[in-house]
Structure formats: C-alpha cells, structure tokens
Structure of DegT/DnrJ/EryC1/StrS aminotransferase family protein:
Amino acid sequence: MENKVITVTSPLLPSLEDFIPYLKDIWNRKWLTNNGYYHKELEKALCEYLKVPYVSLFTNGTLPLMCALQALRITGEVITTPYSFVATTHSLWWNGIKPVFVDINPVTCNIDPDKIEAAITPKTTAIMPVHVYGKPCDTVRIQEIADKYGLKVIYDAAHAFGVEVNGKSILEAGDMSTLSFHATKVYNTIEGGALICKDEKTKRRIDYLKNFGFADETTIVAPGINGKMDEVRSAYGLLNLKQVDAVIESRHRTAVKYREALRGVEGISFMEDMPGVRHNYSYFPIFIDAEKYGMTRDELYFKMKRQNVLGRRYFYPLISEFSAYRGLESAQPENLPVASKVADSVICLPMYHNLNDSDIQAVLDIIICR
Ligand SMILES: *Cc1c(COP(=O)(O)O)cnc(C)c1O
C-alpha cells in the first residue's frame, strides 16, 4: 500500500474471457480490416447508442479531424480554441490552414461565442470549437454566427462521448463532429475515433477519404489517407460499449463525492452540472485561486505527486504557446487572457470508472489538509 500510485485515469477494458470468442471468430473469418464484419457492427451500434444517423470509424481521433476538413474543403483560416489537446490545432496545420485562436468562456472553458465575430476575416471558412471536458459549447450561438457569415462548423467532440442536451446528442451540432476512442477516454477502442456526419453522401465521401480515396478498384476520387479501424479493435469496441452506461454512472458518483467534499474549500472551484445536459464526467478539473487557497497550482500539483496522486495540468500549456503556433498574432497572451488564467490554475483530478472510495478520500485529503 505504501507506494501505491493513484493515476489520473485508468482504461476501461472488456473482460478477456468475453473477448476471446470474438478473436476466434476474427481468426476464422480471416478478414482483418477494410470495413469488415465487426467494423460494420460497431458503426451500427454507435449510431444507435449515440443517437446519430452516420458514424465513420477511424483508427484514432486525430484523423477524423483532418478528414472532416478535407471533406468540407476547408481552406484559409479557421477559428478555434487554444484550450484543448494539441491535435485540434495540428489538424488545421496538416491541412495548410491558419489557426486563429479565440479566448474561452471562464465558466465552461469552451470558445467564447462573444469573441468569435471579431476574429472573422475574408479568409475565414470555418469554426472548430471543442466541447472541453465534455461540457457542451454554446452550439446555438455558434451556429447563428456560422450562418451569418457562411462558415462551416466542425466540433472536436473527443471529450463528449454520450453527452446529450435535452435528450439530443451533442454530436448533432454543426456540420460534423469528431470523437476519440483513445485508451484514456470515457469509451475506448485502445486507439480509435469516429467522424459523425448528417447525410449518406457525406458519409460515403468520408469513407473514401479514410481509405486512400478509393471509390472502387480503379477509381481514386480524392487524395485520401489511411484512417481505417481494424476488426480486432472494432470487436473490442462492441464489448466496451456494453459497459459504458455503467461507467458513466460510476464516474458521476465520483464527481458527486469530489464536489461534496470540495464545496467549502476556500480557493478551490470546480464545474457544476448544466441543466438539461446528460454529462459523461470524462474529467474532473479543479481551479486553484492561489491567493485564497494559500498555495499555487503547481505547488499543489507537485505536493500531490510527492504523495503518489497523479493529477494532470490539462490544458497547460495552451496550444497557442507551442513553438509551431506562438508566432501567430492570435496566439499572443493579450488576446487570450481568460484561457491563460485558466491554464495556470487547473488540475484534473483522478477520474475513472473503478476509482474506489479510499482513493477518492486520499486525493481529497491532500487538497483539503493544506
Ligand atoms: C484525445 C483528443 C484528441 C485526439 O485523439 P487521438 O485519438 O488521441 O488521436 C483530439 N482532441 C481532443 C480534445 C482530445 O482530447
């Protein structure tokens, strides 16, 4: 027990016993990838679970971002958030698109719709917001702006698996949404991801793009890429999908325990549930006000680390601070005061499906007994 480390996340695995019959079946079929049996089954099952019409599976959560930009022929400049995982902005860079960073809202940590219009130029073709921590963006306001200026909207919904607003999937917002099924996410296929779109024609184009652009044996309709998901991970994904509701319920219980214990702690704040939203509790960020708490974020972060509790400063640094992007005008800290402040105050606490009560208490003790 002495050296037990409490990690920030722990992957959801299907039972090995349940997985073996699927593997035997794959071995028998000898069809390993390229839209195989389990691939089709998982796309169908995800459409149902996520309440969306079309899902295209990918081998990770970055390629759907890159292919969404290709499918919608996005060029020039795209408005996005600096408060995300680097893949969001990297997908723009890989498409030769200039990212334009807009500051975030301090309550939701999502792109601030009030600041989008000022960042639009004649070169702007799209907005790429992120539902950070699975908290829904203001999709209504964002769509109004997009419609007014004729822009496309691609949501990076990597954190938002299963999130619903008033009974409707958050993945319905915008022109397309992307998911990541990386091992660290609420729902995983080890590595994996998906692109969600609204019509069959677009789905077909996405499926060409993720398979080198092949429309048939001899026709290449676009310079596509290899983004395909294989049969082994598709089968694994079918099994994990059966557990995901229980997993979200268990994460919810953890979030409630964290909140109850931290509510009275001076200098610590956290996010509350939003009315009408089915949350997925993918992360539990806390925000430290150093003056009131009596300790800086980094002091608390390293104190936790010394006591074998691994939080994560997620998202710090901001994407706009990385060498590839820091030269951009929109990347300057004066343009991003809220994001800069939030990035300097955040720690994501351990959060996963089988985090037990004594571990939760151990995390809380470090934060409360300062
Ligand atoms: C995880 C993540 C991605 C990338 O997903 P991968 O599956 O790791 O390629 C993209 N955007 C955000 C916000 C993420 O958290």
User: Anything to note?
Assistant: The chain has a mean pLDDT of 97. Residues 16-102+111-239 form a domain with the Aspartate Aminotransferase; domain 2 fold (CATH 3.40.640.10). The chain has two domains: 16-102+111-239, 244-368. The pocket of pyridoxal-5'-phosphate is lined by residues 60-62, 84-85, 87-88, 130, 156, 158-159, 180, 182, 193 (CB under 6 Å).
